[in-house]
């Protein structure tokens, strides 16, 4: 019993492998695009996080400076009906 394939079977096998390879290449390209897009979004989110952290630091410092001077701001006071 031999394991030799006919030319038609070899052609069919080769076409099947080529089809699988093309499908895998398509998915690799799709995944590569998705990863690149996520990387861009992550960079934007990191920039936004850094900006927010800096603004929070500035607000905290301004609040500390205001507390040390004893100044009260109108928005910190309770409304008259309390």
Please give a structural write-up.
With 82 residues, the protein is mostly helical. The chain has a domain at 20-65. Helix content is 77%, strand content 0%. The chain contains one helix and no strands. The protein has one helix at residues 7-69. The relative contact order is 0.04. The model has no long low-confidence stretch (mean pLDDT 89).
Beta-strand level of the residues, as a percent range?
under 5%
Biggest sheet, in brief? none
Overall morphology: rod-shaped
Task: For the record, give the distance between the C-alpha atoms at the N and C termini, rounded to a whole number.
Answer: 98 Å
Structural class: mainly alpha
In round numbers, the mean pLDDT is: 89
Region (Disordered): 59-82
Organism: Vreelandella andesensis
InterPro entries: SlyX
Biased composition (Basic and acidic residues): 70-82
Topology:
Blueprint: H1 7-69
Brief sketch in words of this structure:
With 82 residues, the chain is an all-alpha fold. The protein has a domain at 20-65. It has one helix at 7-69.
């Amino acid at each position: 019993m031999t394991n030799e394939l006919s030319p038609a079977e070899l052609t069919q096998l080769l076409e099947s492998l080529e089809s699988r390879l093309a499908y895998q290449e398509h998915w690799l390209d799709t995944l590569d695009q998705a990863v690149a897009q996520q990387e861009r979004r992550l960079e934007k989110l990191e920039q936004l996080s850094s900006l927010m952290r800096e603004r929070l630091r500035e607000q905290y410092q301004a609040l500390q400076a205001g507390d040390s001077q004893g100044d009260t701001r109108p928005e910190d006071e309770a409304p008259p009906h309390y």
